[in-house]
Amino acid sequence: MNSLESPKYLRVALPIALLSAGLTIFPLTALAAQQPHPSPPPHDMDHMQHNHGGFMQEGMHHAVAKGIKLEQQVDAATHTITLREGPLTLPANTSHMKMPQPPDVFWTIPLDAFLLAYTPRLVDASGNSVPGIVLHHTAFWNTDRSDFLCPNKEEHIFGAGSELTNWMEIPGYGYRVQTGDNIRIETMVHNPTGTSYDKVYLEVKIPYALAAADPTASTKSVYPTWMDVQSCGNSGYDLKPGKNKNTGTVTVKYNGILLGVGGHMHDYAKQIVLEDATRKETVATLDAQLDEKGQLLSMPVVTFFDRGGYRFAAGDQLRITATYDNTTGKALPSGAMGIAVGYFLPADDSVMSALRRKPKLPARQIAATHDM
User: Fold this and answer.
1) Residue 8 DSSP SS3
2) Is 347 left (phi over 0), alpha (psi -120 to 50) or beta?
3) Which of 129, 202, 305, 333 has the smallest number of Cβ neighbours within 10 A?
4) E strands along 265-338, which residues?
């Protein structure tokens, strides 16, 4: 498997860099000569109405967490962007349905680059670690691009749950962004513990490589692949007491290969199975690792590098099946998600340009165009 160890040791549930075929790292010397990009002023979200119409938030309505800001720091010396969202107040023993939730915040991409990896963590105001169990989930969506499996959705580029999985950097692949791309960050928190946490921040470190430093295009653009048990609808769904088994399908629209796959589930999860129903093949079976209370610890990753990737053909129908065993004895509203997540390398990258959405015209320009 060249530069990767055995897949079972990769702590990567939803990997931007799940992907390695042992390609050489492209030159980054041009980055060292760049001056640090000025950080934009923090975005104060106090004035915004709470909007949980995103596909991860299931259109739920919550009280709004006040004073939430998104700060960005760009370090050209280490080629790293650090995002910081917060502060959040998390009272003990509070479910995600009752917790005041942060409104969606927006990150404007500051440079033309490849995003290479993501490392999330939760910290307090002093920089001390906060247990990941208080993060229900976070999701990053590129509002300027459509998802290649579900065009009704924005392109989902990163996600994390309580396991706070580190999406590792792997040579040869990256997610291509352009200056000005608008990334919507959707975060939900809860606190099932008996300890209250004050002034909590979600931090995500993102190493990058400038696109201009890769003039020969040796870095391959990969496309986030979110195969959801809810198909192309809202990701969250209710858990009834006991065993729950849900199945959804999506259709591949382009020829290419899946480089690897992991999973995203919630507490009381048992398993995700991804199948190519057209070829009647099981692509991957992912068994959840839980603690004695049924809380999710991790999801495994399966890679396909030793066989040159798992080939998809346009028109292939993929089936996703998620199994839970809810041992609480009661229904858990919006308690589950079942998503198989990987990265797709298209056979012809040029056709993927159709995913970029046309810029929206300003309101005045729209009105003028209509009048004419």
Assistant:
1) helix
2) alpha
3) 129
4) 269-276, 281-287, 289-290, 296-298, 302-303, 310-312, 317-326, 332-336
Neighbour count for residue 367 (Cβ, 10 Å): 11
Domain ranges of the chain: 7-220, 225-355
Please give the chain's pLDDT, 372 residues, in tens: 333 333 332 333 334 334 333 222 222 222 222 333 344 434 433 333 334 445 444 555 678 999 999 999 999 999 999 999 999 999 999 988 899 999 999 999 999 999 998 999 999 999 999 999 999 889 999 999 999 999 999 999 988 888 787 777 777 889 999 999 999 999 999 999 999 999 999 999 999 999 977 655 678 888 989 999 999 999 999 999 999 999 999 999 999 999 889 888 999 999 999 999 999 999 999 999 999 999 888 888 898 878 889 999 999 999 999 999 999 999 999 899 999 998 899 999 999 988 988 766 444 433 333 333
CA atoms of 301 and 287, how far apart (whole Å): 10
How many helices and strands (H and E) does the chain possess? 2, 25
- Beta carbons of 72 and 82 less than 8 angstroms apart: yes
* Backbone dihedral angles phi then psi of residue 204, each to the nearest 5 degrees: -130, 120
CA atoms of 13 and 135, how far apart (whole Å) = 15
User: At which residue do the structure tokens 């590098």 appear?
Assistant: 305
Q: Which of 217, 336, 219, 314 is nearest to 268 (CA)?
A: 336
| Residue 118 CB neighbour total at 10 angstroms | 26
What CATH number has the domain spanning 225-355? 2.60.120.230
CB neighbourhood size of 172 (10 A): 18
Angstrom distance (rounded) from CA 40 to CA 113: 18
Instruction: Identify the burial level of 117 via C-beta atoms within 10 angstroms of its C-beta, where 0-12 means exposed, 13-18 middle and 19 or more buried.
Output: buried
Contacts of 363 (CB under 8 A, 6+ apart): none
Give the closest residue to 322 by CA, choosing from 278, 280, 285: 285
| Distance between CA atoms of residues 186 and 139, nearest Å | 5
Helix (H) or strand (E) holding 43: strand 43-44
Query: Residue 34 corresponds to which amino acid?
Result: Q
What's the pLDDT score for residue 173? Answer: 86
